[in-house]
From TrEMBL:
Protein name: Uncharacterized protein
Amino acid sequence: MSLLDLLGQVQAITGGKYGLSDLLSEDFIREKTDFASIEQLLKELPIDINNVADVQRLSESDLNVFVKEHSSYDTWKGLLAEAMHFLDNRQ
């Protein structure tokens, strides 16, 4: 999955209303995952996010496993959908 694929999923789920940084706010990360910050979450990902090749090799199933292990959501898309609702309710 490429970074563009990930961003495309965000756009599809939010209808273009929000970007990834909007959805994965510090408040959402603290309340809905095992992490205290987005930095901690990114550090714990099973890839080096600064390495383009690693990001491109990341499969959606790998991302789903990570999400399931560190939140109450079964999938990456489920986490994003909840993040959108979380953000909508905060505004």
